[in-house]
C-alpha cells in the first residue's frame, strides 16, 4: 500500500538561517510559520527542521542540552505547537531532527556523569563512554587510542575529577551516549514519545550509524571502523522502530553513510523496522582530489567525476527498486551549495547550471529533499575573514591545514569551497537590508550576492530558477515521478547526463551537458517521436541540434504509449 511519505516533497529548513521574526538576528520557529505559504507555493508538503532543542549551540543545536525544551533562540513550545497547527491546517507535515548519538556536555546527564560528587553520578556515569588514561614509559598520561573525531582532533577528552577520558566522535562538547545502557535507551524513548504525542509527523535520525562502538577500544588511526557502522547499531534502531516509529506510522529518514547494498535494505527496506528511507552521501563528494595532502579528504577540491556521480544515482535507485525507498537530494547543511559545488556560481552560467542540476535530479524516483535556498541558486559564502565563519569544524580544520603546510590563503579557499558554513548563510529573501532575513545583523554574514540572488526578484521573473523549481516539483507530483524507473544512457560518458523515464502521462528524455565546456553528442534515435518540453538556455534553440552549450539541459517528452 502506498504511504504518504513516498509521494511527498520535503524541504529542509536550517532554522537558524531561514527567517527571523523577532529581529534578534537568528531564524526562528515563527519564521517557518511565516514562510509556509511560500513553501506551499513551491510545491513543498513536508518540512524538516534542523534541531530546535535547547542547546549551547556548539554545533548549532546538534549538541542538545534539554531534549524537551525549545531553544530560546528559536522560540517556545507554544511556537512549536503553532508550527504544527499551521502546517497541519495546510495539510503539510513537520519532521524534526532527532540526535541520538550524543548530547551536549551541558546536558544534566553529563553534568552528573562527569562529577563524582553529584548525587546522581552513579546512575549517569554509564550513560556515556569512559576510558581510563594510558601512560607512556615516562609515566606521562596518554590518550586511550588515536581515533580521530569527525570534526578533526582526538575523540577523547580528559575529565580530571573522574581521572578518565570520555569519548566524543564529534566536538568535545558532544559526549557520545552509551547505547549499551538500557536505562539510557528507555530515557531516550520517553523523550521520543513525548514529541510523537505532541504531533510531529516523523524524524530525521542524525548520525544513526555511530550508535555502537567497539568496546575493546583497539588502537588505530583514524579508527572510524571502531565507532561507525558496527552491526549492533541496527539492533538499537530496530528497537526504536518496533516500539515507536512503526506503531505511530511516522516518516523516518535516517542519516547513514557508507552502507552496502544489504545494509541499505536493512535500514530502509520495505520490511525493515528501522527507517522508511536512507540519507546517504555517496553522490556528494565525487570531486575530491586524493593527491592533496594539505587540505585533504572532502576539503580537496578536484574535478567532478561525472560517471561516478551517475553510477551512484543508478546504484541507489537499483538497490531500493521494489524493495525499499530511495531519497534524492543535492545537498544539505553539511555540504557546500550545489550550484557552487557541481554547477557554476559566477554570473555567466549561474542560472543555467542551477536549472540543469534541477532537471537532472528531480525526474528521478524517491522522496526529494530540497535544501533551503537551493530553489533560488544560493551559492557558497564569499567570506574573506576567518572570523566570518561559525562552524565548530572550521576552526579545528583550519589549524590542521596550517599544520599541514597550507598558507592562510589556501586554507581560506578550502573553507570557502567546502566548509559546512557555505550552506548555512541567511536565506536571501529580497534586496533589502540583511537580504530581508532580519532587521538585525544576522548571526552569520549574509552572502554579498543577495541583491541579485533573492526570492523576490525570482518571483517576478518567469525564467528564474525559482520558477523552474515550482514547475518541476508540481510536474513531479502530477506525473508521480516518485514511482518511476529511469533508464540511464551511457553512464560512463564524462560530460553527458541523460536518461529516459516514464511518469503517469508522459515519457521524458532528460539530456544535459553537466560541464562548463560545449559538447557534441549523438541524440537518441527515438528523439524523432518526442517534442522539446523544457530547456535552460536564454535563447531559442534547434531542438534537433547535437551541439550542447555549457551546462545546457533539455527535457523532451511524448505521450506515454498505451500498454
Ligand atoms: C550529522 C549532522 C551534522 C552534525 C553531526 C553531529 O552528521 O548532519 O550537522 O554536526 O551529525 O550531530
Ligand atoms: Ca529570531
Quick overview of this protein structure:
The chain has 563 residues and is an alpha/beta fold. The chain is built from 15 helices and 22 strands.
CATH superfamily of the largest domain: Glycosidases
Mean pLDDT metric? 97
CATH topology of the largest domain: TIM Barrel
Low-confidence stretches: none
Which structural class do the helices and strands define? Answer: alpha/beta
Shape summary: globular
Radius of gyration over C-alpha positions, nearest whole angstrom: 24 Å
Strand content: 15-25%
User: How is the largest sheet built, in terms of strand order?
Assistant: 13-12-11-5-2-1-15-14
Terminal Cα span:
23 Å
Quick one: biggest sheet?
Answer: 8 strands, parallel
Ligand list: alpha-D-glucopyranose, calcium ion
What CATH architecture of the largest domain do you see?
Answer: Alpha-Beta Barrel
Question: Which tags fit this structure?
Answer:
3 domains; Oligo-1,6-glucosidase, domain 2; 27% helix; TIM Barrel; 8-stranded parallel sheet; alpha/beta; 563 residues; binds alpha-D-glucopyranose
Care to describe what's here?
This protein is 27% helix and 16% strand. The protein is an alpha/beta fold. It folds into three domains: 4-103 and 182-468, Glycosidases (TIM Barrel); 108-167, Oligo-1,6-glucosidase, domain 2 (Alpha-Beta Complex); 486-559, Golgi alpha-mannosidase II (Immunoglobulin-like), CATH 2.60.40. The chain has an eight-stranded parallel β-sheet. Helix 7 links the parallel strand 11 (202-206) and strand 12 (251-255). The longest helix is centred in the middle third of the chain and has 17 residues, at 182-198. It is globular, with a radius of gyration of 24 Å. The protein binds alpha-D-glucopyranose and calcium ion (CA).
